[in-house]
Every structure is written in structure tokens, then in C-alpha cells.
């Protein structure tokens, strides 16, 4: 059946075009029934805004899970984004084991680090707990920093293909099944995504833009999940998600007033066309 029910678990930043406010419309545009489980509610995201509100919803998760089990609600896929604590990771792992329909697929975006550093809210206890979630998933979508955190491999800003191959081998040794490694750049003009699936490794290369936008990792992961659950291969979904994300950044970079997110909504039509 082409119509799938997907649960995405991450926070809601009410303003800021990231996390659930990105995942819900993109997965819906892909034609999927999209259920959400907010891990927290923030008035805005935390990059560039000050004085934002924050409400932690960690302790609501077990009751929601129990209710869904009672109602025999299951999901064809669960996709996790930013999780705020080790306790949330523990709860999500329980959901992966209790809420999957037959043929269920789990996607983990281990959103915890970039540019060689952990996000300020996290420590190595969080990393160690994230390893147990990521290595149990069917598909993981780390950037290079996150992949290094998951494996203990030394992060490098400049690297070659041999370095990436070693990093992928460590991910596979840790238990990763299919890896979508984002932000892999071998030259100044381009960047891309490495797809490791079974014994196959493929590289999708695309143009590199001089400026990024907040929330593009969420756009990419959501577009990938939407495409994959439409029946695209991992490599096809990686390419569609990359092309869509680049177009969204191009649609945003010349608008100085829109510094806080990426204008992805006007291009949802092009994403739908790519899926055809």
C-alpha cells in the first residue's frame, strides 16, 4: 500500500522552520499520513533568538505510547530527529519495539553535533545513549561530526575518500545497517551524500552553496524519509532530498529578513514532482 503512516518524534519550535514544523508538511506532501510526538515545545528555535520559552514533554511520552498500544495504533515507520535527553532516547527505543507494523522501518537522524562539536546541551552520556538508538535503526542520517561521535573516530575538517571509507566501516562495525552520510565534500565547488546500503557505497554529488540556512538538516532528513517511504531506493531518496534542500536554500539566501529558517514551503510542489 502506497499510503503509509509515519510517526515523527522531535521537538516543536513554534517559529523557526525546523524539527516538527518542517517534518509534518514535508512528509504530508509526500503523501503519507503523518503522526507527531512532540518531545518539547519552544516558542522559537534556539539559534539566534533570545528569551524563548521551553516546555519539556519527556514525561508525557510513556502515557502516549501506552495509549497507542491500547488502541492498537501502529506505524509503518518511525523517524526521530532532535531528542533532548537520554531519557527521551530510552522512551523512543521502547516505542520502536512496540509500535511497528509489519515491514516497519526506523529512521534515526542523530541530531546532536556539527562542525566537530556537540551541541551545547549534550555530553558523552547522551552520545553513548544515542549510539544504542542509532545502531538499532534501519537507516541513520548522520553528518560527519555525528558519525565521528557515534564511532569515536577523530573528526577532520579536511579529508579524503579513504577517511570517509574508514568512518563508514566503523559505523558498519558498530551495527549500522544503511547509512546516509551527509555533508561529504571532496572539493570546494561541490558537496554530497554517501549512501552505504548492504555491500554497496554510492556518492550523490551536488553543488555547494556559499551560505546555508537553519533547519536544512531537518528538511533533508524529512525529504529523504518521505521519498524512501514512497518506494524510492536509498540512493534515489538521498538525491531527491539533496536537490530539494539545495533549491530551498537558494530560495532563501537572498532574503536577509529570513535569517531564522529556510523557505521550503513554496517549493513543496517541486518536491512532489520529484517523487513522481
Outline the structure in words.
The model has no long low-confidence stretch (mean pLDDT 95). This protein has helices at 20-29, 61-70, 86-98, 124-134, 144-151, 161-174, 216-228, 234-250, 268-275; strands at 5-15, 33-44, 54-56, 75-80, 100-108, 113-114, 117-118, 139-140, 178-181, 190-197, 200-207. It is globular and about 50 Å long. With 276 residues, the chain is an alpha/beta fold. The two termini are 16 Å apart. Helix 3 packs parallel to helix 4 (124-134).
Annotated CATH homologous superfamily: Ribokinase
CATH architecture identity:
3-Layer(aba) Sandwich
Order of helices and strands: EHEEHEHEEEHEHHEEEHHH
C-alpha geometry: globular
> Assembly state here?
single chain
CATH topology: UDP-N-acetylmuramoyl-L-alanine:D-glutamate ligase
Uncertain regions: pLDDT < 50 for 5+ in a row? none
Main sheet record:
9 strands, mixed
Characteristics:
single chain; 276 residues; alpha/beta; UDP-N-acetylmuramoyl-L-alanine:D-glutamate ligase; nine-stranded mixed beta sheet; globular
Provide a compact summary of the structure.
With 276 residues, the protein is of the alpha/beta class. It has helices spanning 20-29, 61-70, 86-98, 124-134, 144-151, 161-174, 216-228, 234-250, 268-275, and strands at residues 5-15, 33-44, 54-56, 75-80, 100-108, 113-114, 117-118, 139-140, 178-181, 190-197, 200-207.
Amino acid at each position: 500500500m502506497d499510503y503509509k503512516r509515519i510517526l515523527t518524534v522531535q521537538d516543536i519550535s513554534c517559529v523557526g522552520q525546523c524539527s516538527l514544523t518542517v517534518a509534518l508538511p514535508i512528509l504530508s506532501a509526500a503523501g503519507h499520513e503523518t503522526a507527531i510526538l512532540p518531545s518539547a515545545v519552544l516558542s522559537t528555535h534556539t539559534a539566534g533568538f533570545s528569551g524563548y520559552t521551553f516546555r519539556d514533554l519527556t514525561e508525557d511520552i510513556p502515557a502516549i505510547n501506552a495509549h497507542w498500544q491500547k488502541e492498537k495504533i501502529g506505524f509503518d515507520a518511525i523517524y526521530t530527529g532532535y531528542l533532548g535527553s537520554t531519557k527521551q532516547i530510552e522512551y523512543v527505543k521502547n516505542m520502536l519495539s512496540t509500535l511497528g507494523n509489519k515491514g516497519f522501518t526506523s529512521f534515526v537522524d542523530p541530531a546532536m553535533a556539527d562542525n566537530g562539536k556537540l551541541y551545547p546541551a549534550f555530553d558523552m552520556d547522551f552520545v553513548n545513549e544515542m549510539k544504542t538508538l542509532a545502531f538499532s535503526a534501519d537507516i541513520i542520517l548522520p553528518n560527519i561530526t555525528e558519525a565521528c561521535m557515534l564511532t569515536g573516530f577523530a573528526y577532520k575538517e579536511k579529508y579524503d575518500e579513504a577517511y570517509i571509507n574508514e568512518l563508514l566501516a566503523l559505523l558498519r562495525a558498530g551495527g549500522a545497517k544503511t547509512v546516509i552520510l551527509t555533508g561529504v565534500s571532496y572539493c570546494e565547488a561541490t558537496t554530497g551524500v554517501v549512501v552505504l546500503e548492504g555491500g554497496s557505497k554510492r556518492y550523490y554529488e551536488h553543488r555547494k552553496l556559499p551560505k546555508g540556512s537553519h533547519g536544512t538538516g531537518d528538511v533533508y532528513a524529512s525529504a529523504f524519509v518521505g521519498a524512501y517511504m514512497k518506494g524510492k531506493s536509498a540512493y534515489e531518496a538521498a538525491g531527491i532530498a539533496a536537490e530539494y534542500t539545495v533549491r530551498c536554500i537558494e530560495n532563501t539566501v537572498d532574503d536577509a529578513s529570513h535569517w531564522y529558517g529556510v523557505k521550503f514551503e513554496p517549493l513543496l510542489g517541486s518536491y512532489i514532482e520529484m517523487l513522481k
